[in-house]
Amino acid sequence: MALSVVERRNNIIELLNEAGKVSVKELSVRFDVSEVAIRTDLTELEKQGLLTRVHGGAITSYKSYYDMSLVQRSNTNPREKMGIAKQIGQMVHDNDTLIMNAGTTPLFVMRELSDKKVTIVTNSIALALEGAKNANFKIILLGGDVDTNYQFTYGTATIGLLQQYNADMAILSVDGVDPVNGVSTFYHQEAEVCKCMMAHAKKTIVAADYSKIGRSAFVKIEDVSKVDILVTSENADGVVLSKLRKKGIRVVAAKS
Length: 256
Fold this sequence. Notes:
Elements: H1 5-19, E1 21-23, H2 24-31, H3 35-47, E2 52-54, E3 57-59, H4 70-74, H5 78-89, E4 97-100, H6 104-112, E5 118-122, H7 125-131, E6 137-141, E7 145-147, E8 152-154, H8 156-162, E9 167-173, E10 176-178, E11 182-185, H9 188-199, E12 201-207, E13 219-222, E14 229-233, H10 238-246, E15 250-254
Parallel strand pairs: 4-5, 4-9, 5-6, 9-12, 12-14, 14-15
Antiparallel strand pairs: 1-3, 2-3, 7-8, 10-11, 11-13
């Protein structure tokens, strides 16, 4: 069965992260599509900041979140993430039910909630393991297929379980927030899970530090109009934040 465009582009990024470079000709043969289709893929991926086009192919442009381990991501912009987590912590009250996705910022948020009695529904294995240590938390880990690299569950089983719950808030870590292209993620497996999380919460809070603002990642999750509150860092692009506010989003710029 032929891969979808999304699946093919995801595989291209995986190959690029492994080899450091790819060629149009090799990719065309590998995926059994035209070189024109591959060039279109590379152009779109370059727009997302995931690679740099060169003659005949592409090379890696930087070591993105997509290629980082959980520990590496935890050590990226930690002050900003802690500031964001503190702001979100103030929005959560005792007895709230929260839906949280995988990512390092949700881990920081959960630590800010340590003295509150909350129920947390999550697809993050790391979040569930850490939260299980706190007697104040009721942790519900969604089953499903497991992404062992990034420690989250996904797939039809995960979504089926998620649809059984209704939460006060969805607190989501994303990789891109753009007024036109919406909220997005590098991880195509988690995109549908995040979309379902938003649909099953009364309010959606997006946590994204300055590096994610005005950026479009690999897969769109939802339009920005579906977001109630964006919590970002104070050094985020003010022009983009102004555009997001005009979309009806409450924007909170946290001090780091």
